[in-house]
Amino acid sequence: MSRNPIYLALDLPRLDAAEALARKVAGHIGGLKLGLEFFCAHGHHGVHEIAKLGLPIFLDLKLHDIPNTVAGAMQAIHVLEPAIVTVHASGGRAMMEDAKAAAGEHCKVVAVTMLTSLDENDLARTGVAGSAHDQVLRLADLAHSAGLDGIVCSGQEVAAVHKQWKDGYFVVPGLRPANGKLGDQKRAVTPREARDGGASVLVIGRPITRAEDPLAAARAIEETL
Ligand SMILES: O=C(O)c1cc(=O)[nH]c(=O)n1[C@@H]1O[C@H](COP(=O)(O)O)[C@@H](O)[C@H]1O
């Protein structure tokens, strides 16, 4: 059986709580995602502590700056040996090329295309006309041409991206079980739909971390896949 594609988003302010939760659901997930909230609060020390659980670490820092600065940041996180790191595709081709060149040999670098908390109205307000679908495909193409391993997109676009980038690595967040609370997510699909669309990684946070019984929630999601 292939590896469990669920990466639990540990967006929790306390390190001990994050560690305890990860330990509890470890048998029902394939990896752990540490994002901005976690990294700003706990830095390298926090990553080392969570890595002790033995699951692959997805360091979701969504780097977005000039190429030289992003390459320097990538070098600085080398020691943490992340399995996956994110940059923003809108940082441009040179930035993505330099990020990939600076990444560790076994680290997948994936580009965030259009955040799953945005819809087409939000996109228009940033000055980008057209559909979410077109914007994601355009940025996926740019990330591919820059030599990245894959992209981050919503489950609404993943099948289309998969069609044009057969061996890409596709990270899909913004997932909600049927009838799950959306919160700030606007382009949500179920974990099963994302997997069927060709997602390589399913990022799931609040449906597990905020559940009354996180273990039961993780198990129930795993069973739908
Ligand atoms: O890069 C990401 O992981 C990401 C990209 C994106 O477009 N949307 C998105 O929600 N995420 C992350 O995925 C996680 C989703 O969390 P939940 O909405 O709680 O499941 C959060 O940690 C976000 O930072």
UniProtKB/TrEMBL annotation:
<feature type="binding site">
    <location>
        <begin position="60"/>
        <end position="69"/>
    </location>
    <ligand>
        <name>substrate</name>
    </ligand>
</feature>
<dbReference type="InterPro" id="IPR013785">
    <property type="entry name" value="Aldolase_TIM"/>
</dbReference>
<feature type="active site" description="Proton donor">
    <location>
        <position position="62"/>
    </location>
</feature>
<keyword id="KW-0456">Lyase</keyword>
<dbReference type="InterPro" id="IPR011060">
    <property type="entry name" value="RibuloseP-bd_barrel"/>
</dbReference>
<comment type="subunit">
    <text>Homodimer.</text>
</comment>
<feature type="binding site">
    <location>
        <position position="206"/>
    </location>
    <ligand>
        <name>substrate</name>
    </ligand>
</feature>
<keyword id="KW-0210">Decarboxylase</keyword>
<feature type="binding site">
    <location>
        <position position="205"/>
    </location>
    <ligand>
        <name>substrate</name>
    </ligand>
</feature>
<feature type="binding site">
    <location>
        <position position="116"/>
    </location>
    <ligand>
        <name>substrate</name>
    </ligand>
</feature>
<feature type="domain" description="Orotidine 5'-phosphate decarboxylase">
    <location>
        <begin position="5"/>
        <end position="221"/>
    </location>
</feature>
<feature type="binding site">
    <location>
        <position position="176"/>
    </location>
    <ligand>
        <name>substrate</name>
    </ligand>
</feature>
<dbReference type="GO" id="GO:0004590">
    <property type="term" value="F:orotidine-5'-phosphate decarboxylase activity"/>
</dbReference>
<comment type="function">
    <text>Catalyzes the decarboxylation of orotidine 5'-monophosphate (OMP) to uridine 5'-monophosphate (UMP).</text>
</comment>
<comment type="pathway">
    <text>Pyrimidine metabolism; UMP biosynthesis via de novo pathway; UMP from orotate: step 2/2.</text>
</comment>
<dbReference type="InterPro" id="IPR018089">
    <property type="entry name" value="OMPdecase_AS"/>
</dbReference>
<dbReference type="InterPro" id="IPR014732">
    <property type="entry name" value="OMPdecase"/>
</dbReference>
<feature type="binding site">
    <location>
        <position position="33"/>
    </location>
    <ligand>
        <name>substrate</name>
    </ligand>
</feature>
<protein>
    <recommendedName>
        <fullName>Orotidine 5'-phosphate decarboxylase</fullName>
        <ecNumber>4.1.1.23</ecNumber>
    </recommendedName>
</protein>
<dbReference type="Pfam" id="PF00215">
    <property type="entry name" value="OMPdecase"/>
</dbReference>
<comment type="similarity">
    <text>Belongs to the OMP decarboxylase family. Type 1 subfamily.</text>
</comment>
<dbReference type="InterPro" id="IPR047596">
    <property type="entry name" value="OMPdecase_bac"/>
</dbReference>
<keyword id="KW-0665">Pyrimidine biosynthesis</keyword>
<feature type="binding site">
    <location>
        <position position="11"/>
    </location>
    <ligand>
        <name>substrate</name>
    </ligand>
</feature>
<dbReference type="InterPro" id="IPR001754">
    <property type="entry name" value="OMPdeCOase_dom"/>
</dbReference>
<feature type="binding site">
    <location>
        <position position="185"/>
    </location>
    <ligand>
        <name>substrate</name>
    </ligand>
</feature>
